[in-house]
Description:
about 240 residues; two-stranded antiparallel sheet; Pseudouridine synthase; alpha+beta; globular; 5 helices
Amino acid sequence: MPFADNPLVELYRDQWLLAVHKPAGLLVHRSPIDKHETEFALQYARALNGGEHVYPVHRLDRPTSGVLLFARDPETARLVGQAMMAGEVEKTYLAMVRGWAPESGVIDHPLKDEPEDRRLRGTEQPVREALTHFRRLATTEIPVAIERYPSSRYSLVELYPKTGRKHQLRRHMKHINHPIIGDANHGRGRHNRYFAERFGEGRLMLAATRLSLLHPVSGEELTLVSEPEESFLRVLEVFS
């Protein structure tokens, strides 16, 4: 059905694929964790597709904004899914983290599965290989005592996940002691609260900015790019 105020911004469309920018706060599809929710990126993408079914080929966490790709038919979904599993799809994320991160690095840290069903949390779960590359783009230091120092440092980084584990980037940045700002589960509460109060709203400072793959039909390289949304860019004023 049509939506007068569709929150998705169309980035690319052809006979086989539909790419959009998903805002922070919107679920991709129904989840047992958020049973009360009634709005999903999937239904809005279907509206963009003339009411016809679309098939998500990957996921973005609810608080993460950015490039989200759908297939417009089951066979294309299968082909893109195979490419995802084979590591043939390159993803780039932009994140603001606490502290001054190294100029570049590789985080090779296996992660235990995080089941969506809360009843299964705390039970034995498989541990899977997880690999993330990163590059620092900028640093800043603001004259505000948030923890035990008279000033507070932050970095802007690009993240390149080479595997696709649940909450991988958030968990990996916590692992190297540079948690992502706005991450309620893996971040630092004092920093999250400071930025929420300073900018009038809290958000996870993680955005999917680029997705590159070989087109499943033509075989040509396809690169999908989206600038972060306004709520993300406002916080980046601290780097000015």
